[in-house]
Amino acid sequence: MNERLLQAIDDRRDDVVALTAELIRFPTINPPGEAYRPCAEFIGARLRKRGFETEFIRAEGTPGDTDRYPRVNVVARFDGRSPGACVHFNSHIDVVEAGDGWTVDPFAGIVRDGRVYGRGACDMKGGLAASIIAAEAFMEVYPDFPGAIEISGTVDEESGGFGGVAHLAGLGYFSKPRVDHVIIPEPLNKDRICLGHRGVWWAEIETKGEIAHGSMPFLGDNAVRHMGAVLQAFEDELFPALDRKITRMPVVPEGARRSTMNINSIHGGQTEDFRPGLPSPNVPDSCRLTIDRRFLLEEDLATVKAEVTGILERLKRERKKFDYEIRDLMEVLPLMTERDAPVVKAVAQGIHAIFDREPDYVISPGTYDQKHIARIGHIYDCIAYGPGILDLAHRPDEWVGIEDMVESAKVMAIGLNVLLRGTTG
Length: 425
Ligand SMILES: [Zn+2]
Known about the structure:
Elements: H1 3-10, H2 13-24, H3 36-49, E1 53-58, E2 72-79, E3 82-92, E4 110-112, E5 115-117, H4 121-141, E6 146-154, H5 165-170, E7 181-184, E8 192-197, E9 199-208, H6 223-243, E10 260-268, E11 286-295, H7 301-318, E12 324-332, E13 335-336, H8 342-355, E14 360-364, H9 370-375, E15 382-384, E16 399-401, H10 402-421
Parallel strand pairs: 3-6, 3-7, 7-15, 8-14
Antiparallel strand pairs: 1-2, 2-6, 4-5, 5-16, 8-13, 9-11, 9-12, 10-11
Bound molecules: zinc ion.
The site of zinc ion (ZN) has 5 residues, from helix 4.
């Protein structure tokens, strides 16, 4: 075990606390994307002082980007004394809205009882701070290290990452030869390695009808009743079938270790908005339903879609006047980094050194920015690893444990040592 490296991180305990609290004080709420620029500039200024080269990349023209809410990302790079691999730590700086139920100010960065409280404390400003002190401690102890370290603070993860990692990946920031290994310090707990996520297919289904006066529905054709038949078929056939599809992916929580589908929304008929509570008396000629289907490594997207369209086609044959359209809204393929991939093995060695146990390998039920790094950047040596308890994310009184940040920074530093210097010693 490397005592100097671990001591250098212990010496930075107050620093990681102060840094996390300062990051929380930027209310980077998304939507709309508040305070992105000052938060990115704060991170850049910190790292520039340690010798990093910094770039600020605004994702102009991506969803939500305006002069009032510019999508500003920061990428910092430190090149070692000799060529070698590059390890990139990527954290999103955006947070979701605070919401109700807080007993502390969500943007004050309050430190109490060994925890830092605030919106984004665990998801994921604590992880960003831990990765920064891990890199700084490593650079201090091994000033002659080969290769390079990059740290990025990116925006819009909570809204799909289009102005953040997807944009940067499109510009080549997450591709070889620039980057070899990526660690995303999302709050997956300090002794777990997240290898990837399930796939996603979002789609909108619309059933068609024919408008008529509500007092004479027999003269029209009710699109909502047609959608009722769709939902009934989902209940009878699709949901039970999905429930039977179990995966070898170690998804957490365990309930997500199978195929799932959520009905996100349903809209039919005229709006009640203009006369509260009273829509006009019409037979609805359109009903729209959005589905959120999460699928597994064992499934392919074409089959996932065919399960739904098969039901719709059958209804078209069997049900009088039934007609529909279906539109794809989002597609993300499932991802699982292999357990013998270099970044997985390096972080596993760190977990072993600090906790004297093997890591738990997990898969996230939902996606995160790893999808863009794989699909656009073609980097597959990528994991999520960071401090914080996933269940606290997006909740009131969100916090991150100080000891958890320090320990996970040690794991990250050991990971850097393995990936760049080829040793834990
Ligand atoms: Zn997150």
